[in-house]
Design brief:
alpha+beta; about 400 residues; single chain; 15 helices
Length: about 400
């Protein structure tokens, strides 16, 4: 085996230029795969954080059935007290209570149906980016103030601005008539049409009084330090609320199933392109090895005539391909890690990204998410593809006749 390995290594450098061109194609593809897969994972992380950070959060405590049918009567009892307990017991800072209802909002000229969200002014910023998207006026600070923050599209539809009074009319939890008059103190421009057109926020205390909620709320929103650590935090939170019968803890996959489906669809299309790249590299190896076998036909015929078994020649060709694949893997992964680590530190941005990010209150750079999987997954498939591509040239040797091979020109 040692002799065959030495022969395989020597044979690689009989045509240095051809070998380096083949290895170079593997190195380039491996660098590209390490960086692109890491960048893709980083963009998914940013997509998840931004989508969940707008309103949903990582986890929510709700009454059973509320996620499928958000009715006002499905509430979390003593929600503020429970949220305070979670913050104290688990050390989670980003825990906030929300009340969610539906009402008609009227200005002097127009009336629209909107979703009214009651928030804790001091804590909502920890679970949502909406307080930071107030482009006119301010976010409220008093939990019992008669104030309202609306989206820019809703403000335009209602033909109101800062300081205007809006009348809210709806139904309370107990079926009573819910009504309130609130002053517009802030206008949000999130860039998302549904939010800007169909949602208004009022202080939680005002919401509970208006909709006869008492100390109840619709949901408790939780944002963990890292969205990838939900497998750690979810059991701890479930254990903390175990005594509160009739409540469920939902993660973001259950709250926003469409987000996971969008990521899977994007990943499928990306892997189609990666597959094309891998196939091209594999055909490059196939071409190199096929040329190598054909130009050494007389040499192989002579060796076979001297008594070497065809299986040993097959092993020799496969080892040559394996050595090239390993060489391309080591160099490509090393350079890919260096490139990815650089952009992981300084960030990656394309022209115009900073302007779009500032408009939507998003990070102005993407940071690759380099993991063991992102580093080795693509290059490992390239290595395997190269080995499979060498199977055909190697199998040709098993059908080689020594006499005919020695007569080959």
């Amino acid at each position: 085996m040692t002799i065959i390995l030495r022969l395989a290594w020597r044979n690689l450098w009989r045509h240095r230029r051809r070998t380096w061109l083949t290895v170079g194609s593997m190195v380039f593809s491996n660098i590209l795969l390490v960086f692109m897969i890491s960048l893709q994972l980083g963009s998914y992380r940013m997509m998840i954080d931004n989508s969940l950070g707008t309103f949903t959060g990582h986890l929510q405590i709700q009454a059973p059935g509320y996620n499928e049918d958000p009715k006002l009567r499905l509430t979390v009892p003593d929600a503020i007290e429970m949220a305070a307990g979670l913050r104290a017991d688990l050390g989670l800072e980003s825990v906030a209570v929300r009340g969610i209802g539906f009402a008609l909002v009227s200005s002097e000229e127009r009336t629209y149906g909107v979703r009214v969200v009651g928030t804790e002014p001091a804590l909502e910023g920890g679970v949502s980016t909406l307080p930071g998207l107030v482009t006119q006026g301010r976010y409220f600070s008093d939990p019992y103030a008669d104030e309202i923050v609306i989206g820019s599209t809703l403000a335009r539809n209602l033909k109101v601005g800062l300081g205007a009074e809006l009348t809210l009319i709806g139904s309370g939890k107990d079926g009573s008539f819910a009504a309130a008059v609130s002053t517009v103190v802030g206008i949000i421009d999130s860039g998302m049409a549904d939010l800007d057109r169909g949602m208004a926020q009022i202080p939680l205390g005002t919401f509970q009084e208006t909709f006869s909620m008492g100390s109840d709320a619709s949901t408790i929103v939780i944002v963990t330090p890292d969205v990838t650590d939900l497998s750690i935090w979810k059991p701890r939170i479930e254990s903390a609320i175990a005594n509160s019968t009739g409540l469920v803890l939902l993660d973001w996959n259950q709250l926003q199933p469409g987000l996971k489906e969008a990521i899977q669809a994007d990943m499928s299309s990306a892997w189609f392109m990666y597959g094309v790249l891998i196939i091209l590299v594999a055909f490059s190896v196939l071409n190199t090895q096929l040329m190598s076998v054909m130009e050494r036909t007389r040499e192989f015929g002579t060796i076979l005539a001297l008594g070497l078994r065809p299986g040993r020649l097959t092993l020799l060709v496969m080892l040559e391909s394996a050595l090239m694949a390993v060489l391309g893997l080591l160099i490509g992964v090393t350079l890919g890690i260096i490139l990815t680590a650089y952009y992981q530190k300084v960030g990656f941005a394309y022209p115009g990204m900073d302007q779009m990010a500032s408009k939507f209150n998003l990070p102005d750079k993407m940071y690759p998410g380099m993991t063991f999987l992102s580093v080795l997954l693509g290059p490992s498939i390239v290595c395997l593809g190269c080995l499979l591509a060498a199977v055909y040239p190697a199998l040709r040797l098993r059908r080689l006749e020594p006499f005919e091979a020695m007569r080959a020109v």
